[in-house]
Design goal:
Order of helices and strands: EEEEEEEEEE
Distance between the termini: 82 Å
Radius of gyration: 21 Å
Helix content: under 10%
Strand order of the largest sheet: 1-10-4-7
Number of strands: 10
Largest sheet: 4 strands, antiparallel
Mean pLDDT: 93
Low-confidence stretches: none
Number of helices: 0
Structural class: mainly beta
Strand content: 35-45%
Shape: globular
């Protein structure tokens, strides 16, 4: 509300060479849910399959005021699974990027599965209105279920290659 002075500064460091990697933010999300009124533990799941190998760097669960808990799991092409992050008491006011202490190489075909629980009951003090059903939406009185994650990929790789399967090589016609 008052005029002030700003002394913002910006510092840039230029690399001596071409970068070998770039970081891409992706999300395992679900926009098709409806949380019933008064439900204290509504579950929503999502899944994202990597179509190319990538190195997992960080995770950011995102929900709104009814968010209760969030879990990320990696399901590897071998069938093995691993919990990557479990946030048992999600708080909309404390949305944090969780940087992995040890980054993980995820092979092509790895699924990032996410499970979120929502509390749309009167027991949730942050709940704007437990009498209403809640759907995906941009406002904080709506809800979101997005499991953001950052991966590093080779600098010359197209980010879209992480999301779409490679097309099989065209078969050559048989010689007569």
């Amino acid at each position: 509300g008052k005029v002030g002075r700003d002394q913002s500064r910006l510092g840039l460091v230029f690399a001596k060479g071409q970068p070998s990697e770039r970081v891409v933010s992706l999300a395992s999300g679900n926009e098709r849910f409806e949380i019933p009124p008064q439900d204290p533990n509504y579950r929503v799941d999502s899944s994202f399959t990597l179509q190319a190998p990538a190195r997992l760097i960080a995770l950011l669960p995102h929900m709104h005021l009814r968010g209760k808990s969030f879990e990320y799991r990696a399901i590897y092409p071998t069938g093995e699974s691993e919990v990557l992050l479990r946030v048992p008491k999600y708080d909309f006011n404390w949305q944090l990027w969780y940087e992995l202490a040890e980054q993980k190489v995820l092979p092509a075909g790895t699924k990032i599965d996410c499970t979120a629980h929502f509390d749309n009951s009167p027991n949730n003090p942050a709940n704007p209105d437990p009498s209403k059903k809640v759907r995906f939406g941009e406002q904080s009185w709506d809800e979101m279920m997005l499991g953001f994650f950052d991966v590093a990929i080779p600098a010359d790789m197209k980010p879209a290659d992480l999301m779409r399967p490679k097309k099989p090589a065209a078969e050559k016609p048989a010689a007569d």
